[in-house]
């Protein structure tokens, strides 16, 4: 890896770490309560009292941004974890068992994937009540399928690999094959999927909230803030939209970038590109 | 006009700062067959690519010149080069799988070629193509013309490649390792086709190979390449009878090792190790409409004694690998049984070296870890693992520092040694070698044969050697089974195989290069 | 080929059956009485006899498989119920939104194709040039912008600030109305296509057969036109098929923002007003559409690539 690109990676990690820290320690960093309505100071532009201005109800944008970040990031993380666990288990069962069961499980995934995910989310959201847990459930229930499919394909290929048979011949038991060869072989895929799952979940939360069917409006989240900002976009209150949108984009961009770097670092030794400034692989 | 068609003068090729081919000069005379011979990694393939000015990215010509009929190839303009590549030169590549556009028919390949370089009509082009395919001794040329590359066998694809290369009657045909991936029969036929064409056309041929046997059959002049340099350039006769350079002598030595049948050590002790009795294996290929039965192995019986080297020869697709997988218990027999009579348990007592060592390694692991894997599954071996692994690496001629490398960093020969080391580590009584030489050059083959023989002698280890190459089988085995289409045709001592009466074996023998029986 | 076609059709039918079961399960888990879920407020307006008939038709007192069979029968007869809001037939409500959405999808796919071929091929051929890095970085950024935010920004810039493009609706079908929505839809997906095509070109241009073609003296243009592009068509096509569902999902957002009278906007509207019958019909319809298109794509790929129809490349088993 060249010096420049390594510095860039380090810089990305550090700056993203700062964002996460700020979000975690939000109560220590903010003066104003994110929920307090102050009708005497509505739509204040960024200034010395309200660093990033106030919204149409006089709530402090910085506070809402940091507290909202907690909600958005937490949802991203938890939803990703749930969908990865479900996806990996489902994919592993399908790939390892094979045969008819595998075919049935895959057709179910085909069916689920042919329903546009947002429609599925909208539909599910009608079943659950509207709170953070429901949002997490809806997001994870609609995003585990590609993970399962990928893990299954990977396992099917690994199962056939000559080196698995070679290990069998030097004495490995089926269980040893699974945890010494098959799982480590899948780990990079799982990690990369997990990372991209975070950005997918954050984006999904933002979209749902923006459409008004995500997090309840009084609770701050980045998507919610953007929805609130929509109607003030034309009246010149740019700060309402810019900061949450910036946070979402920055987070997704960073997570995608890190995922890409990870993919390279975790590749089998002969496939590592090292210094190439390529975010592309696969 | 000189008598030289192609002249290479002080050519140096570099990759980044590193010199790969250094200062080589040679020429190809008109109306002759010249051969470049060298081990893999000697720079011969890159030299070929430099001749057509199509070096891969990152590799470039530092100095020197390539002249074709007195004209410098490296400074041709686009139009000239198109003519040069299209009409003056034809190339046949080693790999037949990769050299065709997978989604276009063989016919389209011909039509496109004629459309680009000659003014003949589409109808004539097709006739011409069919004629060429016919010349290549292909059956049912119409069908071949309509086929997609993957529908043809490797040998057929190689003939089609040759037909494409000579379609426009080039003055120079370059043939880059055309026979490496083929079985001996196709190899022999390819060589004959090339010779016939050259005689008829009066053109020149530049033949690249690692196999002295093949080269001695075809070439008038031989250029020996080693480590990016030319070690010797002489007429074929002279090289074979009186080689001057050290490298040429080594080649001859390796070749003679491969070409000479082993002195058979008769085994007085006939204690059996494994007995295969009437084994049959078939696969069912299911479709919604029909169920096809594909028989891989039919009623095979064979036995291997302790410390014996037994060969199994036959053409590819003949059920050899299936048989080995059955013996290794990777698959179960449809009928018949396999009896293990060794002192150790069946699992572990029999080990395996696969034809593609890279595929048989977990490539995320270092060589050390791969080789040592067998000990991880045995109790109470943890403490001595390091020494044992080092010892076994040394036994196969690898150093313990090689153990720190990843498989892809090893050369083909080293990979095969590592695979052998992994098998030896668990002290087996029998090793199954499945086409171990498939991807190795002649010199690596010779070295590996010596290694296998020495291990066999020292450890009293039995070896079951599976190959399509009768020459190699003769060089290493004491007893040989001949297999065709899943059936064992005969069992014969290596020393008496030349006296065989089985027609199939006779045919296999007749394809051996260099052997004039 | 015949066998391949048959196999894929049967497979797709199977997927359809499973999909319909999922939809059926969806009705069952909806809160409240299934009859109410199907007919909503309309149920109150119906006479007692009609209500009983409906309940019997739904077979609520029978076992689940029979209920499912009855429900499927109704779906096939076009009895999709009534919108709980407007009281209109669901089929009529949904039918009106198909054309706008179709138009939007088609135009965005067209944009994607052009952009992807131009940028994917040029970056692939000039791998590692500054141009390549720039395009690659831009498509990376495009992939990270939430589509709704992108739509808002373009709307503010072109419609409000410059005032040259309309903010909403589809007018009388003039081109300028469709420009922004399809551009947003295209740009938020094109990154993947560029990346896919670029990677494919990078790998294929060093493939053995391309070298063989060069060595036979073909020009770069001939090789690109006759070999590189046809070979790249397969991954692009199958990706387009796979991502159709994703495009439909994004069209919900884009249609809502631009008030495009399509199926996505209708879906969201019915979701917000608890109009189950309409939402369910939309979900079913898009599922059928996606499955059909994927079937077509697979057949098309098999037609282009003989290895797929001969199953040399086995996707599964």
Could you say what the CATH topology of the largest domain in chain C is called? MetI-like fold
CATH superfamily of the largest domain in chain C: MetI-like
Q: Which fold does the CATH topology of chain A refer to? A: MetI-like fold
Portion in helices of chain A: over 70%
Put simply, the count of helices of chain C is: 15
Low-confidence stretches of chain A: 274-282
Query: Hey, which two chains have the biggest interface?
Result: A-C, 50 and 54 residues
Q: By CATH's scheme, which homologous superfamily of chain A applies?
A: MetI-like
Shape annotation of chain C: flat
Q: Indicate the overall shape of chain A.
A: elongated
Name the helicity range of chain C: over 70%
Short description, anyone?
The complex is a heterotrimer of chains A (282), B (517) and C (317). Chain B contains 18 helices and 19 strands. Chain B is α/β, with parallel strands linked by helices and 517 residues long.
Report on the structure:
The complex is a heterotrimer of chains A (282), B (517) and C (317). Chain A has 282 residues and is mostly helical. Chain A has a single domain, classed as MetI-like fold, CATH 1.10.3720. Chain A contains eleven helices and no strands. Chain A has helices at residues 3-24, 26-29, 61-97, 99-113, 117-127, 132-141, 145-160, 162-169, 174-210, 222-230, 238-266. Chain A is elongated, with a radius of gyration of 22 Å. Chain B has 517 residues and is α/β, with parallel strands linked by helices. Chain B folds into three domains: 4-258, P-loop containing nucleotide triphosphate hydrolases (Rossmann fold), CATH 3.40.50.300; 272-343 and 429-510, P-loop containing nucleotide triphosphate hydrolases (Rossmann fold), CATH 3.40.50; 367-426, no CATH class. Chain B has helices spanning 44-51, 78-88, 106-117, 122-135, 141-146, 154-166, 184-201, 212-218, 236-241, 246-259, 320-327, 346-349, 367-376, 385-395, 412-425, 442-459, 470-476, 503-510; strands spanning 4-15, 18-29, 33-37, 59-68, 71-72, 89-92, 172-176, 204-209, 221-226, 229-235, 272-286, 291-305, 309-313, 335-340, 350-353, 430-434, 462-467, 479-484, 487-493. In chain B, helix 3 packs across helix 4 and helix 13 crosses helix 14 (385-395). The longest helix of chain B is centred in the middle third of the chain and has 18 residues, at 184-201. Chain C is mainly alpha-helical and 317 residues long. Chain C has two domains: 2-76, no CATH class; 90-316, MetI-like (MetI-like fold, Orthogonal Bundle). Helix content of chain C is 78%, strand content 0%. In chain C, helix 8 (147-161) crosses helix 9 and helix 12 (244-257) crosses helix 13 (263-272). Chain C is flat and about 80 Å long. The two termini of chain C are 19 Å apart. The model of chain C is unreliable at 313-317 (pLDDT under 50).
